[in-house]
Amino acid sequence: MANRIMLNQTSYFGKGAINEIAAEVKNRGAKKVLLVTDESLVKFKVATKIADILAAAKIDYEIYDRIKPNPTIENVKDGVEACKKAGADIIVAVGGGSAIDTSKAIGIIITNPEFADVRSLEGVAPTKKPCLPIIAVSTTSGTAAEVTINYVITDTEKNRKFVCVDPHDIPVVAVVDPDMVASMPAGLAASTGMDALVHAIEGYITKGAWEMTDMMHLKAIEIISHWLPKSVKGDIEAREKMALGQYIAGMGFSNVGLGIVHSMAHPLSALYDIPHGKACAMLLVPVLKYNASVAGGRYKEIGKAMGVPGIETMDRNAAVNATLDAIQALADEVGIPRKIGPEGVKESDIDFLADSAMADACTPGNPREPSKADIVDIYKSAL
User: How far is it, in rounded angstroms, from Cα 190 to Cα 197?
Assistant: First the structure.
């Protein structure tokens, strides 16, 4: 079996990276930009940094800023209409996973109009053409949406999220500029940072993991576990390190998939509007306990990357427990709740949540094949 690696055509890292956007737009011969973002990033003059760069370069643009957390089918449809109305031939997505994921769906539908029914994009959609070119500018350090071939959309009618996997949706340019994440509030830095850690850990133990992605995931775990607490406190150097760490994690998991932490987190966000990263973080340790019987042999390397003292000489069981303790301690340090019940999750909803998780596109990548009863038990253990 051949292992495939897909990454952006071009990526820029470091302070001032956003200044490369105008040249990238012009070099691609684009005439009109749709700037996709959300109202808060406009209000707090984060997205306007990009608008100012476009204006200074005399590049015509329009702003679509109706993106919501956990973006919906309606967000996508509205964005498609905004893109058509603007006559845009390139998208600049500014934000976290919500803005970039919405841009992917917009871009795919513009070039593949037979998929105008957004639900038809679920899973691995057989689109024929690359999406409208996307330049993705990350403002959070967690989702890595700027480098992945995945996006997630919320179906409010059915109270569920669905995952779309499409090599045609990867942004042509990724811009990772620490100045764009400097103003993140502490809670957002914590939840998105833990999401990045989940990406790295799930990617490392998923069924599709191999040497190249192992290298990416272990380095990401090392960076994230060291710098996340400082990032949450607002340290600028830490924000820069986290921006890099989450991108490296994205390089890996986009190519090998994830597992049931994400499968189980998606319906929590859809039904209770719990932020995605927070939902993932609360489920990480319970799921790792479940997966330990199959994947526990890899936990020692995770612990080593996290700097767990003495783990080199521990036997398998001790290393598993030490690694789980280190992950939980990190989650506690950055303020992630341990239980989902206080977040509004009801035991009466668990059957529905489990059905949604079993149907999720991330489930097949889990190292241990779960039954619905297993998923139910994990949810209950996390209540």
Answer: 11
